[in-house]
Design a protein that fits this description.
Layout: H1 3-7, E1 13-18, H2 26-31, E2 37-41, H3 49-60, E3 65-69, H4 75-83, E4 88-89, H5 97-107, H6 131-141, E5 143-148, H7 151-155, H8 157-161, E6 166-171, H9 173-179, H10 189-205, E7 208-213, H11 216-225, E8 229-234, H12 235-252
Parallel strand pairs: 1-2, 1-8, 2-3, 4-5, 5-6, 6-7, 7-8
Helix pairs in contact: 4-5
Length: about 250
């Protein structure tokens, strides 16, 4: 299952984020929970590309779809994320259609894009193919998710959503509120208006819309609002919350 296969449908897709626990068994463990995709974060973790390569293999081997947020939207970060096996890339701070098109060019081989050629390696699952087949396979299975988390991104979200090759719009809620000058004020009318604009752009252009959410309650709310890609919390927060609940229950009886 590729992330692009998931976004081909507007049914609800559920995933989680990994930024700390790149352990060998994490893929098999997550598979037992019903997770469909995993968001692997390099921007706010210490993960190297070598670590991400091994992590992606553990996830793909059990049939989970993957997204990778590279450290930036520079070509060498985008292309390397693809080469180590990322099925979808989510570069930070996507502000303009020109930036988005550059990412689309970087993840696709010619004639669809400008990605440098490397075949028969991790992103190919090490399967030998003809050059033509390798290009077609890679282009078909690699997705671009536009992370809208700045005021500039909101102003250009319609143009970004309209691009052929943009598969999903993703709201970076904390950075977006910071960029709007209302940090953490998710009920502020300026923030909700920005979110509505992203949802409208996604609907107008037939693109999925996603977000990371910290709670089950918020996940249900976002799904009701029209999001179809929900990333439920992440490894650090889930572990801490579960451990805290257990400790409190033991101490308090």
């Amino acid at each position: 299952m590729n992330f692009g296969d998931l976004t081909a449908s507007k049914e609800l897709k559920l995933g989680t984020c990994i930024g700390e626990f790149a352990t060998p068994g994490i893929g098999a463990l997550l598979k037992t929970t019903g997770v469909q995709f995993v968001f692997v974060d390099m921007e706010h973790s210490a993960f190297s590309f070598e670590t991400v390569k091994a992590l992606l293999r553990s996830l793909h081997d059990v049939g989970l779809a993957t997204l990778v947020r590279p450290p930036s939207h520079a070509y060498h970060h985008i292309a390397r994320a693809c080469d180590v096996g990322a099925q979808g890339v989510v570069p930070p701070m996507m502000g303009t259609a020109e930036q988005a098109q550059a990412v689309i060019d970087a993840i696709n081989y010619p004639p669809k894009g400008k990605r440098g050629a490397a075949f028969g390696i991790a992103h190919d699952d090490y399967v030998p193919r003809t050059v033509v087949d390798a290009i077609e396979n890679a282009n078909a299975r690699t997705s671009f998710v536009a992370l809208i988390e700045t005021a500039e991104g909101i102003e250009n979200v319609e143009a970004i959503a309209a691009l052929d090759g943009c598969d999903c719009l993703w709201i970076g809620h904390f950075d977006l509120s910071n960029s709007l000058g209302i940090p953490g004020e998710f009920d502020n009318p300026e923030y909700t208006a920005a979110v509505d604009r992203v949802l409208a752009a996604g609907k107008a252009h037939g693109k999925s819309v996603g977000q990371l959410v910290p709670t089950v309650e918020e996940a249900r709310l976002r799904a009701a609002e029209g999001y179809d890609v929900i990333c439920y919390s992440g490894d650090v927060w889930i572990f801490r919350q579960a451990m805290q609940a257990g400790m409190d229950a033991i101490r308090n009886g």
